[in-house]
Amino acid sequence: MAMEDAKDEVDAAFTRKGLRGLTYENAFGGATSFLRRTYSKDLTGVDIAITGVPFDQAVTHRTGTRFGPRAIREASALQPFDPPYGWPTNPLEDLNVIDYGDCAFDYAKTSAFPQALTDHIATILAANTASVTLGGDHFITLPILRAYAAKYGPMGVIHFDAHSDLWADDDMDRIDHGTFMYKAVKTGLVDPKRSVQIGIRTDCDDYLGIAYIDARSVHEKGTAWTVARAKEIVGNQPTYLTFDIDALDPAFAPGTGTPVWGGLHSWQAAACLRDLAGINIVGGDVVEVSPPYDTTGATAIAGAHVAYEIICLLHWARTQK
After folding, report:
1. b/e map of 150-176 (b: 16 or more CB within 10 Å)?
2. How far is the C-alpha of 168 from the C-alpha of 194, rounded, in Å?
3. Among 86, 201, 241, 270, which is disulfide-ready with 215 (CB 3.0 to 4.6 Å)?
4. What is the DSSP string of 133-187?
5. Judging by DSSP bridges, how do beta strands 196-200 and 211-214 pair with one another?
6. Nearest 5°: CA angle at 30, between 27 and 36?
7. Distance between CA atoms of 19 and 296, rounded to whole angstroms?
């Protein structure tokens, strides 16, 4: 459908007939659902549900990621005009993908948030639907993994980040974005032997058996080597992909709470994500997009691309089974 044929298509997030197809609305107007997908709480027949988690009360430095889901959705308005570049398939044409809205929680009852998010994701998974979550700080991955592990057992994880998030913290009631992976391993949600961290460039005393590929190794050995190593580690078992936007160098993603220089270039992240096609991915998230620290919107644009690549990976995994 050409742009001139789309004059009657307004706010497809509410008016689309069916759940599939590209969208040709003006990128600068209309409802900002992710990729202009239909807003719906009906999971019947849905393959992938995009959901936002505007939570940033676990950060160690700068807040602002509560605005991440909204900014990522807005940035994604540029993307649903064409099939995803570099992929032989088109998930928007082949799968039922919706925007499930945001996880509801009381910001004044922080202690109740983790269970609220686990229940939110569990509802999606109970419908045999995969979730792609827009954060939010990186703590949110822990409650999400609880829901995934309840369905699939201990998860293999591909974790893009500048930080390992493995700070030792045995107080399971603490809510901290720097300890989520430590707690996920210690509570059996994650199988460290089937997990890998990519882009690391801060110190970690104990990786708890998780393999890591630091940013310098990606730069020097290349994306093909990185992906081959990651695939070797995670194997064919159910795998979750979590992407902290600070895995990217601040030159490409300045809008984040704890930026660290020397990170991945955007082309490296794109190449890694696309070449991971074939893993048994069952869900994923992109976190730590903090719009107040990026007046250009580049960080949110990067986040939207990461989320779309996760959708493509899910599509590939489903169609190749």
Report:
1. eebebbbbbbbbbbbbbbeeeeeeebb
2. 20
3. 201
4. EEESSGGGHHHHHHHHHHHHSSBEEEEE-SS--------TT---TTSHHHHHHHT
5. parallel
6. 70
7. 32
Contacts of 263 (CB under 8 A, 6+ apart): 162, 199, 201, 215, 246, 247, 248, 249, 250, 252, 253
pLDDT (0 to 100) of residue 155: 98
Domains parsed from the chain with CATH numbers? 3-320 (3.40.800.10)
Q: What is the pTM of this model?
A: 0.94
The pLDDT confidence band at residue 317, using thresholds 50, 70 and 90, is: very high
Structure tokens belonging to residue 208: 């708890």
- Give the integer Cα–Cα distance in Å for 67 and 87: 30
Q: Is the peptide bond before 136 cis (omega within 30 degrees of 0)?
A: yes
Token pair of 218, please? 């990606």
Calculate the alpha carbon distances from 53 to 203, 286, 312 in Å.
28, 10, 21
